[in-house]
């Protein structure tokens, strides 16, 4: 069920009405939707704003999942989505979407705001396996002050055979070392 705080274009209001409401300061943009200007931006609202993009067959992953979880303040320019069903999809992604055709295992998914999002551990593992500053920064922010999350992600990477595993482990160990240094000071 969609949140009553989410306004999608042509659902209850037209684009013109939502634009006028935004100019009046009544609503603000959130992902692919609008919310009342005084609403608190939650994980559920961020995730729910992607309902039209994700539907029931796609899951938010990587930077998109990090944004839903509040690790980064703004949605990524290109949402990363992955198949959340075992059957193949005939999906033609838009330019604003990076689509990964591999299925995300059910145990790596949770429903937030009516859409599927990778778990915190899976999101952290995915972020660490991408070699760029945006993903590394998001990983650090997602793992901030949560040593158990980092330890679980390290254990998961050590147990499996994944691309970019060494770099991901190095990043996670660096995050763990920084967390340890913060505790002793």
Number of beta strands: 7
Order of helices and strands: HEEHHEHEEEEHHHH
Inertia-based shape:
globular
Arrangement of strands in the largest sheet: 5-4-3-7-6
Summarize the structure.
By secondary structure, the protein is of the alpha/beta class. It is 43% helix and 17% strand.
Write a structural description.
By secondary structure, the protein is an alpha/beta fold. Helix content is 43%, strand content 17%. The protein has helices at residues 15-23, 43-48, 51-54, 62-68, 120-128, 133-143, 147-159, 165-184; strands at 27-30, 33-36, 58-60, 79-83, 97-103, 109-112, 115-118. It has a 5-stranded mixed β-sheet. Helix 4 crosses helix 5 (120-128), helix 5 packs across helix 7 and helix 7 (147-159) packs antiparallel against helix 8 (165-184). The longest helix is centred in the C-terminal third of the chain and has 20 residues, at 165-184. The radius of gyration is 18 Å and the shape is globular. It starts with 14 loop residues before the first helix and ends with a helix.
Question: What are the SSEs and their pairings?
Answer:
Elements: H1 15-23, E1 27-30, E2 33-36, H2 43-48, H3 51-54, E3 58-60, H4 62-68, E4 79-83, E5 97-103, E6 109-112, E7 115-118, H5 120-128, H6 133-143, H7 147-159, H8 165-184
Parallel strand pairs: 3-7, 4-5
Antiparallel strand pairs: 1-2, 3-4, 6-7
Helix pairs in contact: 4-5, 5-6, 5-7, 7-8
